[in-house]
Specification:
- The structure holds two protein chains of two kinds.
- Chain A is mostly helical.
- Chain A has one domain.
- Chain A has 15 helices and two strands.
- In chain A, strands 1-2 form a two-stranded antiparallel sheet.
- In chain A, strand 1 and strand 2 form a beta hairpin.
- Chain B starts with 6 loop residues before the first helix and ends in a 12-residue tail after the last helix.
- In chain B, strand 1 and strand 2 form a beta hairpin.
- Chain B has one domain.
- Helices cover about 70% and strands about 0% of the residues of chain B.
- Chain B is an all-alpha fold.
- The chains are: A mainly alpha, B mainly alpha.
Chain lengths: ~375, ~300
């Protein structure tokens, strides 16, 4: 490592443990169905990662991450839907060659904002650019006027509400409450069979590691330190000559792009996109993934998303009544009892335990392979 | 958009929609009043506010059932008792929540947001387990049914008028309590300077608890009024929470008058537009307009000028 600041020893260890878990242990131990579920959970890890940057480091709580998740997901879904609605696939419709829900809503031609999604290149660009531009507009309007904290949270939440109502209301253009379903191929490659699901899982893990590296880079760079400084004493940073608003806008846009990548991967892995992943409730659930993982911990975000979703699936499979109680209690507990989440527990309880054991026995290096817990960040909490 | 209607038709439409808007306005005001006290005065984000409202609605429903089966002769007046019970139930739960949860979080407003959201999930599931997932409706006494014919094209439902009268009364009562009573002065003193208020002998913890309780109690009354114009389900509260927060923020968080003005403009805009386009687009346009105005004027319509 040339630069000692980017990727410290704990970061490398954290990356190695996470890679071991996601690339080796989970694919080997789970069947394709469960692996696909993990892939679905991991799409939320992208969002949680973005929230670590903008909420944990920047102190900007956005309750509208579902909007960006949805924008990414819908961009992907529009491309896949257009490909699935070729003329021979849609022969039985009254207007062949357009998506089925448009046909049901008596729309006879593809609207203009669907046109760019005929091309995969434009789609990929749209997945990254549309949410970023949207986040920029929101961020610029609010941060330049020094709106932050609670007001920002409420307004982003309102935007999430608007987005859902809009998608559900404009059924003919968006698929309405059912969303965009029946997606089949990506450039002729079928995304539905089992082997495709496995490939998509690994692609997603690769993207996730890319985002984690980017987040680690941001955290260790001067930018990350300014973000933390801003969270702690905004005025001092401003008086030191930094444009606080621009840094906030950047963090918010980056978080939005992460969320959008997650959303696009969601569409690919799960095979549909609907407004139920956009609105107020999913958006605030995404915050809880970050909070459970530890709002300051980049690796914690991934574990938080995995654990909460795993708990959700298994609890709501067996005790549907209990899940909401559990989730509610989790919200309260993560605020009252362990505000630093899993990463905090790891750093305060598990790591000292290891340190003690290591001190006593002095074993060789590399004993850490089997632990699956989150590796605490070296980030200074306070 | 106006082309198909004659002038007198339009007048009637605006009057009727205006009245529908006034009912929506009443619900908004009742809900937003409680929230304005809790958020505007105390700075606490209570995401479970809608659930406190629904608690009031369920209490009203139970009272109505009770009167129907045991005291049918007094059924005509059950609503007044139901309202008091709703206020007490929501207020008591609010004070309990303040004691158990909120008082630990006064310095972390974003965290109260998450914690009260968790609380709202728990309450929703509790309602679902206790009262069932189906929406329940309240039987109205005879005198509240029907409507009053004003002109031959305009008629006004009586329960709507009742809700509005109620709203006016409650608003007056709340402003009296907050601005003219001794206790209200204490509340405002604590909000403005907690340490100094404590130093002159105000029990700040107690004031906090009763303020939160009052806010939640008013939400309970809102729920009670809500039963007269709609049915109640476990998640009905969540539908209103974002709107209500926008009402409070749009009006200027610390200003009761602003809350009322913004509730009025939002509800009127929404119900008037609802007649000319689909309900969802009316809602989208209203919310978008609020968000846009808030981006230009973040402090809301009527902001108190405070030196920061």
């Amino acid at each position: 490592m040339e630069s000692p600041r980017f990727l410290s020893r704990t970061d490398l260890l954290g990356l190695a443990v996470l890679a071991l878990l996601l690339v080796v242990i989970l694919p080997l131990s789970l069947d394709v169905f469960r692996l696909n579920l993990v892939a679905k959970y991991l799409t939320y890890a992208f969002v949680a990662l973005g929230l670590v940057l903008c909420w944990g480091f920047g102190g900007i709580l956005s309750l509208g991450q579902g909007v960006f998740f949805g924008l990414g997901g819908y961009c992907m879904a529009m491309y896949l839907k257009l490909e699935a609605s070729s003329v021979e696939n849609t022969k039985i419709q009254s207007t062949p060659g357009i998506p089925d829900f448009m046909d049901w809503n008596q729309i006879t031609h593809i609207p203009w904002f669907w046109q760019p999604f005929h091309s995969l290149t434009l789609t990929v660009i749209a997945i990254l650019v549309v949410p970023a531009v949207f986040a920029f507009l929101i961020g610029a309007a609010m941060f330049k006027r020094r709106v932050g904290g609670v007001y920002f949270a409420i307004i982003t939440q309102a935007i999430a509400a608007i987005m859902t109502i809009l998608i559900i209301g404009q059924q003919g253009y968006t698929g309405g409450i059912n969303g965009i379903t029946d997606l089949r191929t990506l450039k002729g490659w079928d995304i539905r069979p089992d082997h495709a699901k496995v490939v998509l899982y690994f692609v997603e893990v690769a993207f996730l590691f890319g985002c984690i590296l980017l987040a680690l880079f941001v955290r260790h760079s001067k930018l990350g330190r300014i973000l933390v400084a801003m969270r702690e004493k905004e005025d001092r940073v401003r008086f030191s000559g930094y444009s606080v608003a621009n840094f906030k806008i950047f963090a918010f846009c980056l978080a939005a792009m992460f969320a959008a990548v997650g959303g696009a991967m969601f569409t690919l892995n799960v095979g549909f996109m609907s407004p139920s992943f956009v609105g107020i409730v999913p958006s605030i659930e995404m915050v809880i993934y970050t909070a459970v993982g530890g709002r300051l911990s980049i690796f914690g975000a991934v574990y938080g998303a995995l654990l909460v979703n795993f708990a959700k699936t298994s609890l709501s499979e067996s005790f549907p009544q209990l899940w909401l109680f559990g989730l509610g209690a989790l919200f309260i507990a993560v605020v009252l009892i362990f505000p630093n989440g899993l990463a905090g527990i790891w750093r305060d309880y598990v790591q000292p335990l290891f340190a003690k054991l290591l001190d006593r026995r002095k074993p060789g290096p590399g004993h850490n392979g089997g632990t699956l817990g989150p590796v605490a960040d070296g980030a200074p909490a306070e | 958009m106006f082309g198909d209607y004659s002038l007198s038709d339009l007048g009637a439409i605006f009057a009727m929609q205006g009245f529908a808007g006034l009912i929506l306005f009443s619900v908004y005001v009742l809900m937003a009043l409680g929230l304005a006290i809790i958020f505007g005065q105390m700075g606490v984000i209570n995401m479970a506010h809608g659930e406190f409202m629904i608690l009031g609605a369920y209490v009203t429903w139970m009272t109505s059932n009770f009167f129907q089966s045991y005291l049918p002769s007094l059924f005509a007046g059950y609503f007044f008792i139901a309202m008091i019970l709703a206020f007490l139930a929501s207020g008591a739960l609010g004070m309990l929540v303040e004691w158990a949860l909120i008082r630990h979080l006064y310095k972390r407003p974003l965290d109260t947001l998450l914690a009260t959201w968790g609380l709202s999930l728990i309450l929703q599931q509790a309602y679902r387990s206790i009262f069932g997932a189906r929406e329940v409706g309240v039987e109205l006494p005879q005198w509240m049914l029907g409507s009053k014919q004003v002109t031959d094209t305009i008629e006004i439902p009586i329960n709507g008028m009742f809700v509005m009268a109620l709203t006016v009364l409650i608003t007056l009562a709340v402003s009296y309590v907050l601005f003219w009573s001794r206790w209200g002065r204490q509340v405002r003193a604590v909000v403005q300077n907690r340490v100094m208020a404590g130093a002159v002998g105000i029990n700040t913890e107690k004031v906090d608890r009763y303020t939160f309780g009052l806010g939640c109690g008013i939400a309970g009354i809102a729920g009670s009024a809500f039963t007269m114009i709609g049915s109640t389900g476990p998640t009905s509260g969540q539908l209103y929470i974002v709107d209500t927060f926008l009402v409070v923020v749009f009006g200027g968080a610390a200003s009761l008058f602003g809350t009322i003005a913004s509730a009025f403009s939002i509800s009127q805009a929404q119900s008037t537009m609802e007649f000319f386009m689909s309900g969802s687009m009316a809602k989208v346009l209203t919310l978008l307009a609020i968000v846009a105005i808030l981006m230009v004027r973040p402090q809301g319509l009527f902001a108190l000028k405070v030196r920061k």
